[in-house]
């Protein structure tokens, strides 16, 4: 093991190798030559298809097992010593029992295969935010994705040095037995295991496993926060860039907001939007009393279907080079890719995500609804100049949001930090026809962290409240809802780039530059406070977007009280106090 002199690392890797019994061990140094060799190997063994070298240079298509196409929340575990610490929203198993189970699966699972050692850094190597991990994997697909999504290679080993302070991760695709699939976080051991899966969200351990589940635990111990949030810089015509973070459940347009294009009128006046991150934010109080954020990732693992030159041209631009597509369709006309919603006219001939010939007359979708692109952040046309700033960016506003047809107004501002924590804790989205099951059912997803919080959800809310005490000049917290509908079920607000109108107001509020009126929920803009020029929304319609239906909100308050019950007496008293204020305001 010439790549490191780290005795802890060497011992651990030897132990894993003795159990998994790979034929070979290869260290990932992050060099272009090594990456190219692995790509060639993946093409030769059939796990990747090289795409059109002119139109999509260094891009590849991969198809997963049809039973292995998404994150599996039902098989995701937080294994801490006490079940109580994992809380009611996580699956738990006693750590030694889980270790026994995992060891049984890993025993000999890498026979005939190579074990890759991926040293990776979440955030820029050497940054005050940076945390390091090693993922041991028998999948070239994982290696080639991890080198896009993180900073990986020898520099990380050099930064770890002889320290034991790194996250130990093991992944084996084993035989993809879905009954034996486990995604396991051991927060007290700083360890992650993913077995019997080869799907991104389960096995690219830097992402949800480390940067959210393990990191939320680290943040709690070390006074920082790991959040499921985008980071966006908004540049105004004066050239000032102000930053917002935003947490949204899936299917609420997070990547679109992260890569927002200002409406034409705004562009003409000099407004610009800069993407710092589309999925995860690590936040720390700065010496200046503000909250600072980095995106710990280095790429985008985006949902492909629906991404088009109309909905998100920046995301599409990101995929033009060095991208791995997973479970999209192969456009056989020119050896490129296609998915539903990419173009109005589908290709005449394609190969679907299951590898079958496909035409527009085929009854099934060409791409899997959760098909993905893994794209390097360097390709992003609106990538912030601060993307690699090791100290991060100062956050002025935090947005929480969800998909609510009638209840939540377009935007409201919380009264203070603790009230903002309450607003985050009650976040919810209504199910859409896109997901299976009933439509319009409210699913609570506090801070969009339901599947990602690595400990008891109510302790996590307490951590938010405690953090508020450490930030002298905290961001203002807002709730947004782009999805209010009229009586015919049509969206009232245009959304997409026009969401900048709401961000302009929110950011102006943070700097004392805009008005608002107090309402039952907090503060909402007067119609004149938001620039509606060119939005197609008149002031009367806008009034409708920010009205609060007291009957609906009384039901909502009852529902919140019921929701809190499952968390028992751990729910911070501050949140109950906020619920009482809400109930009083509605009475
Ligand atoms: C994601 C998710 O893939 O939140 O980012 O599910
Ligand atoms: Mn996400």
Indicate the radius of gyration in whole angstroms: 24 Å
Report on the biggest sheet.
9 strands, mixed
CATH level-3 fold name of the largest domain:
Phosphoenolpyruvate Carboxykinase, domain 3
Number of individual domains: 3
Q: Which geometry do the CA atoms define?
A: globular
Structure class = alpha+beta
N-to-C CA distance: 69 Å
**Ligands bound to this protein structure:** oxalic acid, manganese (II) ion
Low-confidence stretches: none
CATH class of the largest domain: Alpha Beta
Assess the beta-strand content as a share of residues. Answer: 15-25%
3D architecture notes:
- This protein has 587 residues and is of the alpha+beta class.
- The chain folds into three domains: 7-30 and 72-222, Phosphoenolpyruvate Carboxykinase, domain 1 (3-Layer(aba) Sandwich), CATH 3.40.449.10; 227-295 and 387-586, Phosphoenolpyruvate Carboxykinase, domain 3 (Alpha-Beta Complex); 299-379, Beta Complex (Phosphoenolpyruvate Carboxykinase, domain 2), CATH 2.170.8.
- Helices cover 29% and strands 22% of the residues.
- The protein contains 17 helices and 30 strands.
- The strands form six sheets. Strands 11, 12, 13, 14, 15, 16, 24, 25 and 28 form a nine-stranded mixed β-sheet that branches. Strands 1, 4, 5, 6, 7, 8, 9 and 10 form an eight-stranded mixed β-sheet that branches. Strands 2-3-18-23-17 form a five-stranded mixed β-sheet, with helices on one face.
- A hairpin with a 5-residue loop joins strand 21 and strand 22.
- The longest helix has 17 residues, at 206-222.
- It is globular and about 70 Å long.
- The model has no long low-confidence stretch (mean pLDDT 96).
- The structure holds oxalic acid and manganese (II) ion.
- Residues 228, 279 line the site of manganese (II) ion (MN).
- Manganese (II) ion (MN) binds next to loops.
């Amino acid at each position: 093991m010439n790549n490191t002199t780290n005795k802890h690392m060497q011992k651990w890797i030897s132990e894993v190798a003795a159990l998994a019994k790979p034929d070979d061990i290869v260290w990932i140094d992050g060099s272009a030559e090594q990456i190219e060799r692995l790509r060639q190997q993946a093409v030769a063994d059939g796990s990747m298809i090289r795409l059109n070298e002119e139109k999509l240079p260094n891009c590849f298509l991969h198809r997963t097992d049809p039973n292995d196409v998404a994150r599996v929340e039902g098989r995701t575990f937080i294994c801490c010593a006490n079940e109580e610490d994992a809380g009611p929203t996580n699956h738990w198993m006693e750590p030694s029992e889980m270790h026994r189970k995992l060891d049984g699966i890993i025993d000999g699972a890498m026979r005939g295969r190579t074990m890759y050692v991926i040293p990776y850094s979440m955030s820029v190597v050497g940054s005050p935010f940076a945390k390091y991990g090693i993922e041991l994997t028998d999948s070239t697909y994982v290696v080639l994705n991890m080198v896009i999504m993180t900073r990986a290679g020898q520099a990380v080993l050099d930064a770890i040095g002889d320290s034991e302070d790194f996250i130990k991760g093991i992944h084996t695709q084993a035989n993809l037995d879905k009954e034996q699939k486990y995604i396991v976080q051991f927060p007290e051991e700083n360890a992650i295991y993913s077995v019997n899966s080869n799907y991104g969200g389960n096995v690219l351990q830097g992402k949800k496993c480390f940067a959210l589940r393990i990191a939320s635990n680290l943040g709690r111990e070390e006074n920082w926060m790991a959040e499921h949030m985008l980071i966006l810089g908004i540049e105004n015509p004066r050239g000032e860039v102000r930053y917002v973070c935003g947490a949204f459940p899936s299917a609420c347009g997070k990547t679109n907001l992260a890569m927002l294009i200002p409406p034409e009128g705004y562009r003409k006046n000099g407004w610009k939007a800069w993407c710092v991150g589309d999925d995860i934010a690590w936040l720390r109080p700065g010496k200046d009393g503000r909250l600072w954020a980095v995106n710990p990732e280095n790429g985008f693992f985006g949902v492909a279907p629906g991404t088009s030159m109309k909905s998100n041209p920046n995301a599409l631009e990101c995929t033009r080079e060095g991208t791995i597509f997973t479970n999209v369709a192969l456009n056989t006309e020119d050896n490129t890719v296609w998915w539903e919603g990419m173009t109005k006219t589908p290709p005449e001939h394609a190969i679907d995500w299951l590898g079958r010939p496909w035409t527009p007359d085929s009854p099934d979708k060409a791409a899997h609804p959760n098909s993905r692109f893994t794209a390097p952040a360097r390709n992003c046309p609106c990538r912030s100049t601060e993307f690699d700033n090791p100290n991060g960016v100062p956050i002025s506003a935090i947005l929480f949001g969800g998909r609510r047809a009638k209840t939540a107004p377009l935007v409201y501002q919380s009264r203070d930090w603790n009230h903002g924590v309450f607003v985050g804790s009650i976040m919810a989205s209504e199910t859409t026809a896109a997901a299976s099951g009933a439509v319009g059912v409210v699913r609570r997803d506090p801070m969009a962290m339901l599947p990602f919080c690595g400990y008891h959800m109510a302790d996590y809310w307490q951590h938010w409240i405690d953090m508020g005490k450490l930030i002298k000049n905290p961001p203002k917290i807002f709730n947004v809802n782009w999805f209010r509908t009229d009586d015919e079920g049509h969206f009232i607000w245009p959304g997409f780039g026009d969401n900048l109108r709401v961000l302009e107001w929110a950011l102006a509020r943070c700097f004392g530059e805009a008005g608002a009126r107090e309402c039952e929920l907090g503060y909402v803009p007067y119609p004149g406070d938001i620039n509606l020029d060119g939005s197609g929304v008149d002031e009367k319609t806008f009034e409708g977007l920010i009205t609060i239906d007291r009957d609906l909100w009384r039901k909502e308050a009852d529902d919140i009280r019921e929701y809190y019950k499952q968390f028992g007496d751990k729910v911070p008293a501050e949140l109950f106090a906020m619920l009482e204020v809400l109930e009083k305001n509605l009475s």
